[in-house]
Structures are given as C-alpha cells and as structure tokens.
C-alpha cells in the first residue's frame, strides 16, 4: 500500500465525518448526569463515544489544516493549535470519566457528583474537586475559542466547504448562550458542531490534491506544440554542427 498525501487527506476527512457523527449520536436521548448513571454500561458506552469523537476530530482537523496551511496563515495556526489542545484535554477528561469515575462512585460519591455538576455548562461544585474542575473549564475555553478561530480561518481560506466552516465557528459561539437558556436542552447546541465536522470531512474527502503537471498531448495548444518542435529542431542543428 502506497501512502500518499491524497490518502492521508481522505483518511482525515473520513475521521472527521465519523467523529462528527459520534458527537451527534452521543447527544441523542442522553440521560441526566447523576451518580446512578456513572455505574451503568450506558455511561461507559457514551464516554467511549466521546473519546472516539475527540480523537477522530483531532485527526480530522489536522488533515484540514495541512491541506490549506498556506491559505489559513497565522490565524489558522492559532486556531488549529487551540482547538487541538481542546480535543486533547477532552480525551483526558472523558477517559477519566470512563475509567476513574465508575471505580470511585461508591467510595467517593460527593466527589463524583461534583465533577458531574461541573461538567454541565454553568454548573458548580459544592465541594473541592482539585484540578479536575480547572481541567474541565480549560477544556471548555479551548474548545470554544479554537472552534471559533479555526472555523473563521477555514472560511477565509475558501478551500473546503465554507458553510461548514461558518457553522463550526457559529456552533462554538452558540455555546455561550447555554447558561442564559436553562430551559433549552444544552445538548442541542452540540449538533451544529457535529454537522460542521461531517461537512468539512466530506469536503476534505472529495478534495483532490494533484501535483502540477504538463497537460496531455491531446490537450496542448497548437502554439505550444509548434514551439516545442522548433526548440527540438534547433537543438538537433546545434549538435550536428
């Protein structure tokens, strides 16, 4: 199997599509976060889906950035780094939720309940959860800022689907409205980001990077063919003289 830039770009596009679909799927009928949920199989499945979303999305945005690195400029670099860090921190948070939380749910129910409270936008912990709260909040800031900056950079680059790039930026900004709209299910705000990743991934998959090459013989203009024959004839005369 030959690994080419086209193969890697398509793999990144597929990763973004699957990641976006996982993110949308996690939101469907998501139960209320409480202590009882942490000990269930559904919790482990949903946490695993979140880990898959963050991991695949990281691979996807890496392919998007490399595809148009010259067009996105400094804004694209900053947006990519910030969003990538957001996904990296998200993986650490979700892995902790999948592996650690069920193990200590019975011995430290107060700690687990406080972590779940902080995980909800606008939520606050009643007790001390150490650096876990700071990690969750930092992840939220990086995810929001990175989505906004990277979405703007992709939109300005005009390489991948612009509607999806705009939706990525708008989806990140829309999360700021969650605390002000407690009556709205906050998980609905994640759907635009998932759709944006699917759209960008599909756009990256379809995109073809072909190296610059001379046109085929039948597509060349008569003028180019005439000039080529004259140059060949002149070179032959020089060699024979």
UniProtKB/TrEMBL annotation:
Write out the ranges of the annotated region (Disordered). Answer: 213-241
The superkingdom of the source organism is Bacteria
Q: Which residues form the signal peptide?
A: none
Where are the coiled-coil regions? none
Asked if the record carries the keyword Transmembrane helix, the reply is yes
Q: Which UniProt keywords apply?
A: Membrane, Transmembrane, Transmembrane helix
> Which residues span the membrane?
7-28, 48-66, 73-93, 129-153, 160-180, 186-205
Record flagged with keyword Membrane:
yes
Q: What is this protein called?
A: DUF4386 family protein
